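Need C-alpha cells for this chain, all 492 residues.
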Amino acid sequence: MTDLYSTYERINSVSPRTLLKIVLYSYMNGDYSSRSMELNCKRDINFMFLLEGAKAPDHSTFARFRSIHFAPCSKRILAEMSNALFDLGEISGETIFIDGTKIEASANKYTFVWKKAVTKNQTKLLQKLADFVAECEQLYDIRIVYGKAIKIKHVKRLRKKLYALKKTEKIVFVHGIGKRKTPLQKSIETLEDYLDRLKKYNQQIHICGKRNSYSKTDPDATFMRMKEDAMGNGQLKPAYNLQHGVDSEYITWLTIGPQLTDTTTLIPFLKDAQEHLKFKYRNITADAGYESEENYLFLESNGQLSYIKPANYEISKTRNYKNDIGKIENMEYDSVSDTYTCWNGRKLKMDYIRHVKSKTGYVSEKTIYKCENCNGCPYKSKCIKGNNCKTPMEDRTKTLQVAKTFLKQRKEDLNRILSEDGILLRTNRSIQAEGSFGDLKQDMQFRRYLSKGTSNVLAESTLLAMARNINKLHNKIQNERTGTHLFPIKSA
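Here are the C-alpha cells for all 492 residues:
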C-alpha cells in the first residue's frame, strides 16, 4: 500500500489502512454510501472493531479517500491482491475468462450531446459566418477576404474592424425595451453570438473525441443501449463498459472504457493486465463478442492461445445454414487454382483484393471472388442474396468477400474450443465470468455508479471487485474449496 500512503501529506486520527478496511467491509455488505459508512462506524460493533479504538471518520473523509487517495493507485492495489492470491495458490495464472457489461453512469439521461448533430450544426454555422463576412464587407465598405476561402482569421479581423468602427463613430450600445439598436450594434452582437456558438461546437467535438456521444453532467460517460430497458424501446443511457477478467472465480483484473461493443476492449485489457500482474495468462477465453482478425493475430503474436467462440458458431449448426448454397462454407475450394466451385459447378475466380481499415487503425485484407458466368443458372435466386439491390436479378453476378487470414485463425480457434480442454474452458467461462456480474448486479445490488469520471468509476469498480474477492475467499474457506480452479464437467 505504498502508493496509497504516498497520496497523504499527513495522516490524521484514522490511517489509510484502516479506512481501506472499513470501505471494503462496507462494500462486502452491499453498502456503498459514505454517509452509511459514517453511521455504521458509530453504531455497528463490527465497524467499531475495524476502527481499533479510533474516532469515527466523517462521511467526507470516506468520499475523499475514494476519489482523491484510492483512485490514483486502484490498479496497483488490485494487482497486489491478485498477486497475493496467486502466491497462495488460489488462482491458476494460466486461464482467464473475460466478459463485459454496461453499468449506468451517475448522469442525467437527458443531457446528451451527439457528435453527428454537433458536426452538422457546425457546418451550417460556418456557412452563415461566410455569408455574414461578405454581407459586412458590402455594408461597411471594408475589405477583409483576399481570395475565395474564408478562414477564422478573417472573422477575427472583421471583429477587430467592427469594434474600431464603433470607437471611431462613438456609438453607444443600448439595451432594453424601447431602445433602437444601430446596424453596427446588431452586426457586432450577431458576430459575437456566432463566435460563441462556434467555440461551443469545437469544445463539444473535442470532448467527444472518437466517441459518438457524451453526457453533459458526466463528460466521460457514453450513451449506450442497456439490457435494463424498462420501456422496451431501446432507450440509450449514459454508461461505462466494465470488463472483468476472472480466474478461479476471483476477479483478477478489470478495465473501464467508453466502447459500445466488446471487440475493441480485448487488446487494451490484456496489455494492461500484463503490465501490472507478475504472471502472464496463456489461455484467453471469451465469448463471440470478442472475435476479430486483429484480436486473433494479437494473441498469436503475444504467445497466447485463444478460446473465443466464433460469431457464427450457433447458427452454423442449423439446417438452414448448412443447406444455404450461397454461403462460402458450403462451396468447394481448390487451393491450387485459388477458385471456389458453386452449386452449379461454375468457378468463382479472384477478381481483386480490397483493404479495409477498422476504427482502431488495423488494416485487413479481403479477396473478392467473382463467378465466371451466372446467366441461365437455375440456382441463381437461392445463391445470390440481397433483396434491396437495385440491379435486376438477371443482371447480377455472384461475388464472395473472403478474409483468408481471419478464416484461417477462426478454423484453428474452432478446433481448440471443440477439444476436451476447450469444452471445459467454455463451460467455466459461462459460470465464472457471467457469475461475477451476477454477484455484482443481483447479489450486491450494484446497478448504477455513485461517482463521476473514469478515474472515480474505475476506483469504485476496483473496490467492488476486491470486496467480492474477499467474500469469495471466505466462502471457499467455509466450504473447503480452496485451491480449486475449474468446475468439472458433469457427464452422464
